[in-house]
């Protein structure tokens, strides 16, 4: 493995390749900062450029755009409550409250560090376990995905800071939004009011509306529209020794869980970040601090989504199975250059395979080196007074949403979701579970229906298949723990 990795380093450090690796991560960083654009748009636009490059250079540049966008997406989430990418939605939960308290610099430093550490964990796992993890991923069929997604939906109830019943209601609302559009099996329309809704609701519209525009509407009526006082001295940016020590566990847990979910086709960085947040909140001794600026709630998910960004290449390169639309574009770029991804890629194209893996490490070092000096610059954004900042934010939201699917209806839907986001805040409902329900609901429906068709409606399949049994058992434990904690709270309230 070491010899192969050194081959990859030699490939990526070639000046003609290295330049494109740097260009890729810088473009990805900038694209991630711009809300709603996303890696898929940038890669789609730059796909024709790969016609003039060899396969190795092309995939290294496109990969740099992908994981560079993971870094950039967290910046707008922390400073403006605008998730630049779906995986950075969770960053809003604790990153934005830190910015509101004048700790934007510290939040950005922790984010950059967590992203770098998570990426290194992901790279290490790819180097050591690409083949075993790809074999394990092949064991996942419809029953395993259905039970995993169900577990994820239950975990979503742990994300909210308030009542679990309210959180469940928000998950159900997200599932409902995810069902709008054409049925995946029959093609029949469901809850489609106008033809433009036939393709379903855009995740970008939902995220931008609930978080970004909802925050604008919330603050627009405030009489006092002044900028937040932010400290950006080195002492204020760096976490204390005790805080740094407390981040070791979230970093390792986030990097490990993110690597696992990233290697599973169809899951990806967004689900990895949500699951990491749920894990950190569950293991924390102070779960009441989550959603109010908890460092573990920022560090764990950031490590997870960047680790997942690296390991998502495992099924793409070793199996030829794309985990999401971005990975599908990666496969398209390889095929356009005459390279067929699959089990033989590692032996037929060792320089390409290990060059891409080595580029992850080089690219993340470049991103880390770029991000640290820029913290002061990014923090200056939050010093702009609200009445000058918010028109720019609304323009960015509108441009990002429209560019995603070139749809005016999506922009109108974003406005509607912005009003909904404001109403949810007004009545103390959490918006994050809505996003997870929206992402996971259609996945649960698809895999559950497929399971029932394959196994003739036999529900015992979720107990007889080993991986399913583990996920089902964990789900049962979560339900039992939730009931127990609710009963205990009730007894404590009655005794008071």
From TrEMBL:
<feature type="transmembrane region" description="Helical">
    <location>
        <begin position="59"/>
        <end position="80"/>
    </location>
</feature>
<feature type="domain" description="DUF112">
    <location>
        <begin position="19"/>
        <end position="436"/>
    </location>
</feature>
<feature type="transmembrane region" description="Helical">
    <location>
        <begin position="260"/>
        <end position="279"/>
    </location>
</feature>
<feature type="transmembrane region" description="Helical">
    <location>
        <begin position="171"/>
        <end position="193"/>
    </location>
</feature>
<keyword id="KW-0472">Membrane</keyword>
<keyword id="KW-1133">Transmembrane helix</keyword>
<feature type="transmembrane region" description="Helical">
    <location>
        <begin position="429"/>
        <end position="444"/>
    </location>
</feature>
<feature type="transmembrane region" description="Helical">
    <location>
        <begin position="145"/>
        <end position="165"/>
    </location>
</feature>
<feature type="transmembrane region" description="Helical">
    <location>
        <begin position="352"/>
        <end position="374"/>
    </location>
</feature>
<keyword id="KW-0812">Transmembrane</keyword>
<protein>
    <submittedName>
        <fullName>TctA family transporter</fullName>
    </submittedName>
</protein>
<feature type="transmembrane region" description="Helical">
    <location>
        <begin position="20"/>
        <end position="47"/>
    </location>
</feature>
<feature type="transmembrane region" description="Helical">
    <location>
        <begin position="464"/>
        <end position="484"/>
    </location>
</feature>
<feature type="transmembrane region" description="Helical">
    <location>
        <begin position="319"/>
        <end position="340"/>
    </location>
</feature>
<dbReference type="InterPro" id="IPR002823">
    <property type="entry name" value="DUF112_TM"/>
</dbReference>
<feature type="transmembrane region" description="Helical">
    <location>
        <begin position="408"/>
        <end position="424"/>
    </location>
</feature>
<dbReference type="Pfam" id="PF01970">
    <property type="entry name" value="TctA"/>
</dbReference>
<feature type="transmembrane region" description="Helical">
    <location>
        <begin position="116"/>
        <end position="138"/>
    </location>
</feature>
<feature type="transmembrane region" description="Helical">
    <location>
        <begin position="200"/>
        <end position="217"/>
    </location>
</feature>
<feature type="transmembrane region" description="Helical">
    <location>
        <begin position="386"/>
        <end position="402"/>
    </location>
</feature>
